[in-house]
User: What shape does this take?
Amino acid sequence: MSKKHEEVEVITLIDEDGNEALYEVLFTIDGQEKFGKNYVLMYPSGIDEEENVGLLAYSFVENADGTQGELTPIDEDSNEEWDMIEEVFQAFLDEED
Assistant: This one.
């Protein structure tokens, strides 16, 4: 995964124990037309470029004022959503090569 010299968006996630962790946004997917929400793929902040890590994928719905929103884990049974995310991610990887 190569990093470009552009500003990176960072999100703080808080787990059920109250621990905070920083994640960098890899990219977002506009899924409004098909699913009525957007998606964000992210990875742990501060990792080495060559390090293999698991990506996190969440759906994202903005607040009415458009300033913030809520991240929601994607339902494991939502095959259509996962298929779309995997397809977009594969296209991203193909562009990076």
User: Anything to note?
Assistant: The chain has two helices and five strands. Helices lie at 32-35, 79-96. The first strand starts at residue 10 and ends at 14. The chain has one domain: 10-96.
